[in-house]
Amino acid sequence: MTHDALPSPTAASEGSAPWRLPLSTQELSQGLAAERVVELEIAHGNGDLIKVFKALEIAGPFTVLSPWELQDETGRHLIHAGGYAAMPFGEMYPPLVSFMRQYLDTNTSMGLPQQSAATWRAALETNLVALLAHQAPSHADSQVFFSNSGAEAVEAAIKFVKAARSRASYLINFSKAYHGKTTGALSLTPNPEFQEPFKPLLPNIITLPYGDSRALLSKVRELGPDKVAGIVLEPIQGEGGVIHPPADFLPAVEHLRREYGILVVADEIQSGLGRTGHWFASVAGGLDPDVITLAKPLGGGIVPIGATIARKAIVKQALGGLNSKRHSSTFGGGSLAMAVGLKSLELLVENNLAERARHLGERGLARLQALQARYPEFLKTARSAGMLFALQLQPVINPKLIPGQAELVSQLGSTLAIRSLHLAGIHACYTQNAFRIVRLTPALTIPDALFETMFDRVEEAARSYPKAWQMLRKTPLKTLLDLAKLALR
Hints:
- By secondary structure, the protein is an alpha/beta fold.
- The protein has 2 domains: 28-92 and 353-487, Aspartate Aminotransferase, domain 1 (Alpha-Beta Complex); 99-350, 3-Layer(aba) Sandwich (Aspartate Aminotransferase, domain 2).
- It is built from 18 helices and 15 strands.
- Strands 4-10-9-8-7-5-6 form a 7-stranded mixed beta sheet, sandwiched between helices. It has a 4-stranded mixed beta sheet with strand order 1-2-3-13. It has a 4-stranded antiparallel beta sheet with strand order 11-12-15-14, with helices on one face.
- Helix 6 (150-164) packs across helix 12.
- The longest helix has 22 residues, at 353-374.
């Protein structure tokens, strides 16, 4: 039998035709009509979400034209600023795709090396720890646990902290935080819309105002430092709307860490590995966290991967000795993900994309601030952290006109802004923990000319809707009615 041969299919029972799957890979390789794709997604996927996109006329599916450009189902060309910061090189970046082909053709490592050492995993563990130790030398002997997403990386961090401070009861998190939607991560994401249907969540979670070092110190003293297992934070809040804490906040957290031994988890899933202009935004801000979570850019926009880096003493408490399988992940550390992660990290570091993100981020923010000055009734504020941009729009309706529906009005504003930017030729991101804010997260490798064109198109949107409420007025009535039906469900 050749390596690529499969056993002969078992014959169907006499008188019956063999059952076949409704869609084949061959059929998809020949193309599936956009309308059919949307129809199938509505029927068998997250149907209401696709209905929202369909109502907005942005349902796709999209075609990749280049790593930085897309084409929607109508033929409109879009600059790709979506991906929620998980596309550091854009779509199907040729150097990464070429490496993957080489890997698939030549690799002889086990695909899922769960009960052995593994070359690709060892290499990525080593390089991640080396990069972190280069910025924070106390991490020279830290260890890495791999999973398949940012939320899973946070789940591992929670368990590590609890194991290492088993006599402490409380975890402290912060307002507007976003750490994921699995149960533990969701417990640290204080958004009622996300949490309410799934309560009760983890107990003993204390939520404090983000960036308020006085409130943090006061609460730690009130609870007793020995009762606080850990502090979980984002050094820059991405889903909160690209929010920087005050300059004294991270140093204050560092003081608590050193003074009382409270473990600090820095969620760098969106801020880490270059996007915000630093390899680790927490370290750049004056914090030496005990645990760091990474994910989005590490997969190069191609494979799912999460990483939890923790000090050796912490990992030993959770996974030491015969308890080394106490926390595990079937696909975490799989060779394909490790290989792509290794190459992604190599491309990020060797091309110094953190520095490029910092420089382009300054240019981009300057353009957005100039735009805000020209169109203040369209754009309320603009913020950035490297190449993570937030545009906060003015309200499309005065909330006072619809009492008790301020949140719905805000959601409508961000939804219409996504549509308006799409019509101007930009694929942008929703912001899940802050309404009326859309984000631009272009690839760190986007060509300079295309980067400038992206802001030209933002300005085009502003010219089309110089007052934000005009986005509502110029939206087709059918679109608004379809959105209203979905909102009332």
